[in-house]
Amino acid sequence: MKVILIKPYQKYKVNEIIEVTDGFAKNFLIKNGYAQPVNKQTLANLDRIKTNIKTNLAQEIEDAHKIKEELEKITITFELKTHNNVVHGSITHKAIHKEVEKFGIKLPKNSITGDSLNTIGMHKVLIELHPQVKAFLNVLINEAK
User: Which domain of life is it from (predicted)?
Assistant: First the structure.
């Protein structure tokens, strides 16, 4: 019997059509809500779901490219205290995230990668907006007076 998975099960993914025995399909997969039997209605529903997934993915990538353009135009400035050319403190991802939000740009959580910044000068911070879209943000760290 062919079934369409509606929940992930073992090595199989959601929206995948698999061939299993009748008993396993009826008594376990369908009964426990892991799958639906393949028929005209469920196949049409599967096609609709796959189309929606593709359009949503295209929209997410387009939005990420817009945010990338905005991010690469701005430079964020921070100040760190120094004493005898030794920097005290560092700029964390959370601080960078808050500064970016002041420009009206909403970043996904945990999108800023790399270590905290603790040296004076210009830094390029990698921001992963989407698995396919990455942006570099300019961060300038000055010496506090």
Answer: Bacteria
